[in-house]
Amino acid sequence: MKNAIALLDCNNFYASCERVFDASVKNKPIVVLSNNDGCVVARSEEAKQIGVTMGAPLFKVESLLDEHDAEIFSSNYALYGDMSGRVMNLLHNFTPEVEIYSIDEAFLNLEPRKHSLDNLAHSIREKMYKWTGIPVSIGIAETKVLAKIANKRAKKAQLKEQGVLNLYRSPKTEDILKETNIEDVWGIGYRSTLKLKANHIFNAWQLRETDNRFVRRLLTVVGARIALELRGVKCLPFEQSSIKKHTITCSRSFGQTVSDYEQIKEAVFYYLTRACEKMRKNNLAANAITVFIGTDRFRPIPEPYSNSATYSSTYPTDSNREIQEWTIKTLEKIYKKGFEYRKAGIILSGLVPSENLTKRMFDDEKFRQQHKLMKAIDEINQKFGKDTVRFGSIATEGRWKMKQARKSRSYTTNWNEMLVVS
User: 275: closest CA among 309, 254, 251?
Assistant: First the structure.
């Protein structure tokens, strides 16, 4: 028998993470806000039921949330990232083949001959909640596209208590595909939806039954693969290894507008530090950096202005100090006095493995020492907390710091914010 594909999806992930360490919000409506506490980016089921929509500005729904005694949280990325890592690591206890698709989703490759798929899925769901406190839904089928549809159905109200839907060689598949709107099929975007509906293809079953040569002419080979996946033919590969990164980006909107060059440089250096940490964690080095800045697009003062510039080097590096020198040269090119900036960011590119960097004609010994220094700093910060050791030019506070007035504690990544039981 062919292996089955399961998609595990954490339910209302950000809201669920907030509930793990705070029992007082377990049954309350919960919303999580975007950067600078602007809009709703995550909702609990209770928040959805009272009418809070995704992307709603906080000021428009704040009275509704107050009326229902809802809890409002700023985004706590340290908590969500760590909880995601825990969930994904635990999945290897159930199968060696795991493909992490996003922060809260993963595909699992399961062998039907070894286990009852239903029993295994329920076991994963129960143990995941017991071990992490995160509720999950699981959809199972022959292919990734079918598993996505099964997972979405598993979240529906009538299946909420079960949280599992197994469509692997199931007679229910036809009915469920007929009930699945074409725009809800994974990989079918807005333009493809318009083309399919113009040709009287309105649901997943109709796409499955359409001649594949016609689908290919209409939606190219990508659409043809989706149609084949709906028929149970595996066309999307199962990728256990992480996809190679081509760039690493770190950017934020400022908590307040900033016009002073030194403060903008502080912000850019802070974002650079975060990006470099991520780069070294993936054993990579960069040979180029792009810096970009911009005014508030809604209230540009004195007028709209945005710009970017790139600095490229002959030698790739993973040293903060070296990339900071590139950053200064780049930022000086694009900064203009008299503007109130609202956003800045950096992009590291030209990424290569850091193990076998080209030996430098000049200052190679100096670079090797910096490489060892960065490794030591990363190890200390990983053990004792972010920014325990940092360069003196790196500030952690300023007008540019993102607003997080309602952020919960970093329960799992900061010793000073751990829960204390008395």
Answer: 251
Separation of alpha carbons 107 and 33, rounded Å: 28
Backbone Cα Rg of the chain: 24
- How many Å is the maximal CA-CA distance in the chain? 69
CA distance 262 to 198: 55
43-91 confidence digits (pLDDT tens): 999 999 999 999 999 999 999 999 999 999 999 988 999 999 999 999 9
Distance, CA of 276 to CA of 272 (rounded, Å): 6
Q: What is the pTM of this model?
A: 0.80
* DSSP three-state, residue 398: coil
Length of the chain in residues, anyone? Answer: 422
Q: Which of 261, 303, 241, 279 is nearest to 371 (CA)?
A: 279
**Separation between Cα atoms, residue 230 and residue 223, nearest integer Å:** 11
- 396: which residues sit within 8 A by CB, 6+ positions away? 270, 387, 390
**Rounded distance between C-alpha atoms, residue 145 and residue 231, angstroms:** 10
User: 35: alpha, beta or left, given left = phi > 0 and alpha = psi -120 to 50?
Assistant: beta
